[in-house]
TrEMBL record:
GO biological process: cellular response to phosphate starvation
GO molecular-function terms, A-Z: ATP binding; phosphoprotein phosphatase activity; phosphorelay sensor kinase activity
InterPro entries: BphY/WalK/GraS-like (IPR050351), HATPase_C_sf (IPR036890), HATPase_dom (IPR003594), His_kinase_dom (IPR005467), HisK_dim/P_dom (IPR003661), HisK_dim/P_sf (IPR036097), Sig_transdc_His_kin-like_C (IPR004358)
Subcellular localization: Membrane
Transmembrane segments: 5-24, 65-83
Organism of derivation: Lysinibacillus irui
Protein's name in the database: histidine kinase
Reactions the enzyme catalyzes: ATP + protein L-histidine = ADP + protein N-phospho-L-histidine
Amino acid sequence: MVVQIIIILLLAIIIGLFINFAFIDGVLQAPFADAFVDFCEKVLQLDYFAAQNAYNVLFQQNKPLWLAIGFIVLLLIIFYIALSRFTRYFHQISTSITMLADESDKEIQLPEELDFLEKKLNDVKNKLEKRARDAQEAEQRKNDLVVYLAHDIKTPLTSIIGYLSLLDEARDMPIEQKEKYVAITLEKSNRLEQLINEFFDITRFNLQSIVLEKDLIPLNYMLMQVADEFYPLLAPKGQKAVVKIDEEINIYADGHKLARVFNNILKNAIAYSDSNSTIEISAKSENNQTYISFTNTGKTIPPEKLNMIFEKFYRLDNARSTQTGGAGLGLAISNEIVQAHGGTITAASNNGKTVFTVMIPTNS
């Protein structure tokens, strides 16, 4: 646009100079003067000398004025052209923003001069479309999960009612049998409590706001404590959790929320690790950033699933039963907690080894 305006200005100057040197002081001066004098004599009824005097006064003595008038006229024309183009640009931009608001499927197209803006608007459009798709998919996963949980709740609840009914009806049953029924009822009650808690997690997820209460945390001790607490889950499959840290690391973070992150990652690693395997927990600090890694051996996670593993309500186990997985919120919540600390959480899976890496600023 600026280049076009400069070109038009140069043309205006050239035209103005051409008029001056051609019609007033140049090769066309005599024909132009004769035509003007003839016009004055025939139309304005002036005599020849008066007409020639009028020509001298109007043109020969006022050359700068005529140049200025011609230049102003040309400037007005240029201004009108530029204003028209800007008005058209604003209209096209307004139409493009309306397309964004209306979530139109059409690609946004702008004139070549606005190519940079076209790319940015299309980038925004693509991001909004992706967010809408992700939200829709998450909502669908949530609805599916609620249906599955509701179905699975019936199983332990039916068992609880059945065994309690037997205990109520046969009050004189043998002690051994009664103890067996009570143990089964307790086990089913714990499972029912777990499923109900998952319902509460689903409800709370969109309502929670993460507020950090930071303090200086000895990371070595914290990770060893997390590993020890999971011994009851590790032992049945012959698994082990080993902490390997070569240096003493202290980080400034929210200990309770960070422990929840590590618990979620370790719980996920246990669920998807091979029996009799070792889950390795390591950490290192460099450039004011601390990296904590959880490495487990098991099935390789496909890339398409790995990209979605931190999305809410997404579960690696797509089976209908919820026995092997929760509401699909653990890693999503972990991701939000880590991001609230100004860090990142990533996952990589190759050749049967899966590594979750948490990066936390050491002194954030």
